[in-house]
Amino acid sequence: MEIFESCVNIAFMMLASFFLLTRLIPQKEKNRRTDHVKLAHLSALEKISLSRPLAERMRPKTLDEITGQEKAIFALKAALFGRYPRHVILYGPPGVGKTTAARLIFESAIQSPESPFSKNAPFVEMDASLIRYDERGIADPLIGSVHDPIYQGAGEKGRMGIPQIKEGAVTRAHGGVLFLDEIGEMHPMEMMRLLKVMEDGLVRFESAYYDKNQSETDEYTKRAFEKGLPADFRLIAATTRPPSALAPALRSRATQIFFDELTDKDKAKIAYSAAKRAGIKLSWESCLQIGKNAANGRSAVNIVELSMGAAAADGEKNVGARHVKWAIDMFGDRNENLSDSKYA
Length: 344
Description:
Blueprint: H1 2-46, H2 54-57, H3 70-81, E1 87-91, H4 98-109, E2 123-127, E3 144-147, H5 155-159, E4 164-167, H6 169-172, E5 177-181, H7 188-200, E6 202-203, H8 219-227, E7 229-230, E8 234-239, H9 248-252, E9 254-258, H10 264-278, H11 284-293, H12 297-313, H13 321-331, H14 333-342
Parallel strand pairs: 1-8, 1-9, 2-5, 5-8
Antiparallel strand pairs: 3-4, 6-7
Helix pairs in contact: 3-4, 10-11, 10-12, 11-13, 12-13, 13-14
């Protein structure tokens, strides 16, 4: 009887296994086909691209291409080229080249024989206006954070009760430059955390779940909790706000450099260069009109681009003065100010 029952059980298990296999194999094949279709769709999407905006194509590739900022550029070189590079705050209106100048000068600084930066030193860029202060300390892309086991998605280490450290931008910038755009929009508490890191040259972490004696804790986690993560960098911060809007503690640690407003002639030169880059001819008179009505260099390029669009809408290949006038009337800085007044 027992032998019979054993044979029945074996037969049942074999049938069950066969049933599962007949269900799993088609499912695997279905998954494979689905993955193939999704991959083909992704490949098709990757082949589609629109033309790059003219403003993006006009981004200077050398310092000589930055218009009207000779004094600020030399000051930034002096701050970064020497044996003891400085933290820097860049002041100035939008669209005058602060970010581009910082990136290009850093690329030159790492070639300077006096510079302590290595040839492969990082340049890490973040928009400070998007950084939110997290008092829980579990989501801080700037400073770094600790992911305790109690939080969702803690992973295998979390299931073993081990907290995990997430590196922030300050550690990724170690040995190089951390560029923070719109520094004036940063939360005051986050600013205090940043200043502490700048002073110590490292980031310290704490967690009630950390136990250095736990056998499963890896060496990286132990060293990060006990010694901190390296964060020795030079800060380049940019802002459109006045110095009084920034924390005195930050200003006292940095060299303050001021970018000038672009003159109408500077903006006209940018418009002329943009037209040349786009392969169209604009008269210098039209470029001067753009310069007088554009808020900044980026605005001047946008007006050139819209003038080209107006010509295309008219079915014409050449951009005429009337197309430029239309773009200025619709999108120039003066018109923008008038539009604001309607909602005041």
